[in-house]
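Lab notebook, design round three. We kept the backbone fixed and only want residue identities now. Task for the bench partner: fill in a sequence for the structure below.
Input structure tokens:
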């Protein structure tokens, strides 16, 4: 099981990966939503704002008003960010859950 700090660092790495792709997708996708990431095995959550293809203001704590919610274990979050776990297969096998509107799910797919 990964630590809270390792999960926080993984979200930072995810933002860096998104940033590398942000210019390309910014013209295709307009998405500005509050987002939360729940780490179910640690009982913690992080919140941020997904805008301009980036994760802004990553902070500790849940956001009950989040329009996009990612739910995973600590190890699965890290494996996903590090490219060791395929998003589609993790989602299909219920290792990862994403709660968002259908439209937002389609936009998220473009970002990744």
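Proposed sequence:
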């Amino acid at each position: 099981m990964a630590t809270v700090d390792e999960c926080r660092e993984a979200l930072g790495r995810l933002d860096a990966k998104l940033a590398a792709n942000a210019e390309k997708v910014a013209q295709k996708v307009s998405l500005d939503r509050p987002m939360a990431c729940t780490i179910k095995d640690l009982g913690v959550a992080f919140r941020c704002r997904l805008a301009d293809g980036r994760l802004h203001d990553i902070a500790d704590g849940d956001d009950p008003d989040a329009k996009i919610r990612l739910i995973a274990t600590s190890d699965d979050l890290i494996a996903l960010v590090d490219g060791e776990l395929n998003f589609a297969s993790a989602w299909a096998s219920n290792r990862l859950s994403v709660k968002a509107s259908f439209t937002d799910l389609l936009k998220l797919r473009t970002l990744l």
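Keep this in mind before ordering anything: The chain has a mean pLDDT of 90.
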